[in-house]
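Researcher: I'm preparing a figure for a lab meeting and need a structural model of a single chain. I don't have an experimental structure, so a prediction will have to do for now. The sequence is pasted below. Please return the structure as tokens so I can convert it later.
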Amino acid sequence: MTALFDTVLVANRGEIARRVFRTARAMGHRCVAVYVDADAGAPFVADADEAVRLDTGYLDGAAVIAAARATGAGAIHPGYGFLSENAGFAADVLAAGLVWVGPTPEVIAAMGDKLAAKKAAVAAGVPTLPSSDDPRDGDAVGYPLLVKAAAGGGGKGMRVVESAADLAEAVAGAQREALSGFGDDRVFLERYVRRARHVEIQILGDEHGNLLHLGERECSIQRRHQKIVEESPSPVVDDALRTAMGEAALALAGALGYRSAGTVEFLVDDDTREFFFLEVNTRLQVEHPVTEEVTGIDLVREQLRVAAGEPLDRTQADVSFTGHAIEVRLYAEDPAAGFLPATGTVAAFAPAAEPAVRWDSGVEAGSVVGVSFDPMLAKVIAHAPTRREAAGRLALALTRLHLGGLTTNRDFLAAVLRHPAFLDGDTTTDFIERHAPAARLALDDDALRRVAAAAALWLQGRNRAEAGVLRSVPSGWRNARLPDSSVRFRHRDDEVEIGYRALRDGTFAVRDLGPARVHAWSPESLDVELAGRRARHTVTVDGDRLHVQTPRGTVELAVVPRFVPPGAAAAEGGFVAPMPGVVLDVRCAVGDRVTAGQTLVLLEAMKMEHHVRAPYAGVVGEVRVAVGQQVENGAVLLVVEPEVPDA
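Model: Understood. Here is the structure written out token by token.
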């Protein structure tokens, strides 16, 4: 039976909502958004035809349904995350007489519990890893093992355990994280495969019994057990393995009576090429665009068609694959600090026109990234005839993105895509640990001096543009031999001073670099030739900082003031919060003797736990926080006086 609806409410936020809007609107549907106060100025709210404010948050299913009724929305699309795998919410949507864009509540409930999903896989004849429902039964599973949340994903509630001595603490931490992230603290144990690949099969089904798969995606490159690079096809899956995995996925989907889009996830042993069932995601996946790019099939369109009761319009024989697609997840996080989430305001976000790639973004210049939600800024997807071309195109697009205002993993992702091991297809789940791609863009002295010189000349151009008198005279111009103009910049831990002199012919002499000519200046850019090399730089001002686009990426430079006002000195031996968050646990008291590596404070930020450890042995002199306290980035948590060895 066909269900008619002309308005779709998307019960999600950010790039997820914008992605669904794009297809729904192309199909002729009006789009409704819901939002909370923290997102009032977010781009997805402005993109919607109508938006409804939620007093209680995105997880309030009753409020979402009420918003659909108030706006005349006939269907609710949950996106991914939030309520997308909440069987109770799906049932409530249907009970309200609305169309649910997703699988049936019964299938969501069965697959949302990983323990039940594994039993269903066994019944369908799908290979599984050794596991135990008893979180104390590590010896039966064998070490190393994984502690995993029974209800959830995204790396939350997951711990690798190397020995029995570490099991109890890992289970306790996973249970806390699972309860916070999913409202369910159940965990189970599963054998951990060190040299493995994370490969998943995209499936589609309708209510008429039609089922097909759209090939595989490899999502092996991960940090904190969360994917950051995904691609299709996998560099190691051949036709025989693809057929076997596809048949296993469809066998399980058939047993479930699956409808809508979904993903059956497998672990592939890199040595033996055996595959094992992991879980079923009963929703759209973050990485779905790579499948769309190689198949030409819009998965959101298929979801909406199936939800309306229409049959799939193709068979397995009609599915074909063209080229190679790679996606990266651009996050506000610091790869150099263990991928800790970062917060702040996006000062600059301007993708270059070339190379042409797909940007699924939830932010723009001025967007605020806080602690309440996942810190993903965008999905970036490249499709090309070959894998190497796709990797090169995507790396260049990331490099040419003008991005500033907060710490991101952009440079790290570009380093991954250009790494010889990645290009060779050596992409197991331990890729980051084994190959350690560069965490951030490294500038040698010459490169730093060149970008600083460009920034100095842009500043002098701004000074001239803002001058009230003698605007045509370059700043620093003298009619006598006086010292050069100079400006000092800080880049991370380095400082560089640029001295320059304006010459009578309109050019400049830059100390230690040579002649310079400004070919064009504007409030947003600079076209400059430095010692024979010419480049155009996009420039964004952010307080006392300049974000300068270079051929290798965006470089942040802070102008060092000539006269620094006195300020409060940091507490000697003070341990500071690496990010904003909530204190979950304080594991020391004043007077305690602590050892290097000992966890002293446990923080929660963005639904993940973060351990603040002692970098050296010492004695606790002050404890400045308590359990439940909200702390800002850089706040002093406690003070430890280092132990002084006996003379």
